[in-house]
Design a protein that fits this description.
Layout (H helix, E strand, L loop, with lengths): L1 H11 L2 E6 L1 H18 L4 E8 L3 H9 L4 E13 L4 E9 L9 E9 L3 H11 L5 E9 L12 E5 L5 E2 L15 E4 L3
Parallel strand pairs: 2-3, 2-5, 5-6, 6-7
Antiparallel strand pairs: 1-9, 3-4, 8-9
Helix pairs in contact: 2-3
The chain binds inosinic acid and magnesium ion.
Length: 185
């Protein structure tokens, strides 16, 4: 019992300063939804959510869209350490359907080095969609190793490891309603 309580205290100690508040996430998602709806007016959009981090961003963004849209998911594993991806990516779950001729929008939680997204864009581009764009909730420009055309960005953040609103540290903290720094991260 006491052990459990101590563990809970140690856990919350990992949650550092809040970088993006809940209200700011909500407001920005609505703005992105408006821009995307205007850009794709009259077309049918296929959102490709990258699991698991884009979970909440995708579900909020999709409800902010006024264009017709469908959704599909991919899950990727990037080889590397806990905090650095190597660029060598394995597809854990592929899309259910073909994207040939479709207007595809990749919805990502965060672009860090950009290596994962770069791999994903090459893979999807080879399937000949009509268009392929990216909407990322967060980017860390200082960490970028490859130059990528990211059409829609929620927030640029400094080089810190962040958790919450879908983003995890060892699978924890995805459920935080805000984006916070992992303390010591
Ligand atoms: P990249 O290949 O270096 O751009 O890494 C991208 C992936 O690493 C993201 O899709 C996240 O899953 C994960 N990632 C990168 N930075 C963070 C972070 O600060 N918090 C949580 N996950 C992160
Ligand atoms: Mg991700």
């Amino acid at each position: 019992m006491i052990g459990e309580r101590l563990a809970a205290v140690a856990e919350t100690a990992e949650i550092g300063d809040i970088l993006v508040e809940r209200e700011d996430l909500a407001r920005r998602v609505l703005e992105l939804g408006e821009r995307i709806s205007a850009d794709y007016a009259g077309r049918t959009l296929l959102l490709v959510g990258v699991l698991k981090g884009a979970l909440f961003f995708l579900s909020d963004l999709m409800r902010a869209l006024e264009v017709e849209c469908e959704v599909d998911f991919m899950a990727l594993a990037s080889y590397g350490s806990a905090t650095d991806s190597s660029g060598v990516v394995r597809i854990l779950k592929d899309l259910d359907a073909s994207i040939e001729g479709r207007d595809v929008l990749i919805v990502e939680d965060i672009v860090d080095s950009g290596l994962t997204l770069s791999y994903l864009m090459r893979t999807l581009q080879a399937r000949e969609p009509a268009s392929l764009e990216v909407c990322a909730l967060l980017t860390k420009p200082e960490r970028r190793k490859v130059d990528l055309p990211i059409r829609y960005v929620g927030f640029e953040i400094p080089n810190r490891f962040v958790i919450g609103y879908g983003l995890d540290h060892a699978e924890r903290y995805r459920n935080l309603p805000y984006v916070a720094v992992l303390s010591g991260g």
